[in-house]
Amino acid sequence: MKLEMKRMMFSLVAVACAIAAAQIARAESSCPAEIAVEQRASAPAPDWTVSYSGYQTAVAGVTIFDGPPSAQASLVPDNEKTSGDNLIQIWQLAKSDRGYWLQCNYANTTAQISRQLPASVTRCDVVYDRNMRFSGGANVVKSVNCK
Asked: In degrees rounded to 5, what are phi and psi of residue 85?
């Protein structure tokens, strides 16, 4: 009886792992809403004082790359449309040997983060608020969804 229980338990664990692996493979990729950034500035001369605004970082732009961002092969969206207050950019991603990368740009900093998208990702949608902009002019990103 104990052997049958072990086999049943092993089967249940195997099924659970298979389901989890399938969910991970289909996982969506997005940009974190904010990133922590430490800045340090030097005064250009003794009569200048450095201060910091305290503004929060917030995702302010997205670039999709064919290959690592260092190769500088950024892609333009395949489609762009407006819907109410939203500007929606859509990238359709065919199979690529180099892989695709998502780069997230942030307001109030020059810091960027990027990561390779899973090979299963075939589309990225970025939704911007057409009526809201950061002080640098970038539209406010409402959502990033690569699936």
From this structure: -85, 5
Task: Give the tens place of pLDDT for each residue, 51-73.
Answer: 988 888 899 999 999 999 999 99
- Of 57, 53, 55, give the one whose Cα is nearest residue 34: 57
Query: Which tokens sit at 74?
Result: 């950024």
Q: Does residue 66 contact residue 100 with C-beta atoms inside 8 Å? A: yes
3-state secondary structure the chain: CHHHHHHHHHHHHHHHHHHHHHHHHCCCECCCCCCCCCCCCCCCCCCCCCCCCCCCCEEEEEEEEECCHHHCCEECCCEEEEECCEEEEEEECCCCCCCEEEEEEEECCCCEEEEECCCCCCEEEEEEEEEEECCCCCEEEEEEEEC
Distance of CA 113 to the CA centre of its chain: 8
Q: How far apart are CA 69 and CA 28, in angstroms?
A: 20
Q: How far apart are CA 30 and CA 32, in angstroms?
A: 7
The pTM score is 0.74
